[in-house]
Amino acid sequence: MRVRTRSSAIIGTICLVASLALTAASADESAAPRPAAQVVLKNVATAQNPTAGTSGPGGTLWIAERAGTVRVLDDRGLGSPVLDISAETTTDGERGLLGIAFDKRFAHLYISFTNLEGTSTVDEFAVRHGRIQPHTRRTVLTQTQPYANHNGGDIKIGPDGYLYIALGDGGSGGDPHGNGQNLDTLLGKLLRIDPRGGKPYAIPPDNPFVDDPNARDEIWAYGLRNPWRFSFDTGTGDLFIGDVGQSDWEEIDRAPASSKGGENYGWSQMEGTHPFRGGTEPANHVRPIHEYDRTNLGCSVTGGYVYRGKAIPALKGQYVFSDYCDGTVRSLQLKNGKVTGVHDLAVNGGEVISFAQAGSGELYVLAIGGSIFRIDPR
Q1: Is pLDDT at 366 greater than 80 in this prediction?
Q2: Which residue in 22, 257, 258, 318 has its CB near the most CB atoms, within 10 A?
Q3: What is the reported pTM?
C-alpha cells in the first residue's frame, strides 16, 4: 500500500512481425484532442481490501487482497481464496500483499508482499492446470525496508518475459537516506530480473548497469519515490509508471519499448518537473509525460493501463489512471509518446488503489474499500 499522510530496450531486438503490430497499434492514435470516452463503472464483485489484480488462466482475473489472500474472479463471481499468506504479512503502515503476476504461460505465479518484519519479498509458485502448487513455493528476492511506507510492491512480467519489480525509496518522507539517486541500493528503483534463469534469479545480460561496479545489476530504472503501480502497453510495449509524489506533485513517467533502461526519473532531486527542496535537476533526468498538483482533491496517483480492449473504441490507446484521494478515473490521449489530451471520464471509483487488465484488454478498477468495477461503455 502507499496511502500516506499529506505531510509526508525493454526488448533489445524486435522481429519484423512485432514491429508491424506495434506500428498498427499506434497509428490509430490521432494527435488532435478527442472527446472523452463515454464510460460507466460496473460493480462486478466485492473483495476484502483488494490491492492488485492480474490476468489469469482461462480468462479469469486473479485478485490480491491486502491481508494476504488471493481470489479468482470469473463469470461466476469472486471465489474463495486460492492462496492465503495472511499469517506471514501485516497491514501495518503501507504493508501487506501488494502485487501479483503470472508469467506468459500461466506456469508460475509471483506474489509481492511485506513479511512480518516489513521486508519486501517476492515469492514464486508453480501453477498446474490453473491451480497453485504450494509445495513449489520459493523466495526469489527480498529487500529490507527501513520504514513502513513507500514499499512500492508492484510486479509485472514484461514483454521480454523478465520480471519487473517496483520498490519505493524506503519511506519516511523526503528520502532521508538518498536512496532515489543511489545506484548501490534497490530502493527507489524499478528492477528487472530473470526469475527462472538462476537461483534465486539471474540478471539479464543487457540490464543497463551490469558493467558498473558502483551500481546494482538488478536496476532497470531509478529516481523513483514510490512507484505504486506500473504497466506495459500491450499494444506497443511502452512502460508507464505512476510515481506518488511527496507534497505537491503527482507524476506519470514513460519509457518507450525501444528503451535500453537506465532512466533517471529524478527523485529526490526532483518532484515531477520541479526541484525538490532546493534540488538540482540531474542532467539525465527523464521528465514525466504528465503531472498534476494538489490544488484539488488529488494526493496520491494510482497508475493504470493503456486501454487495448474492444468494448470502448473511443478509449483505445489512451492511458487510464486515477488518484487514491480523488477517485476520478481519467485518461491521457497519446501520440508518439506525448500527451495530446487529458480527459475526465466522469466516473469515480472511490479510494482507487489499483487497476487490473483482463486478457481481453478490458480494464478493472479496484477500490481499497472492496469494490471491483469493470470499465464499460455507457
Answers
A1: yes
A2: 318
A3: 0.92
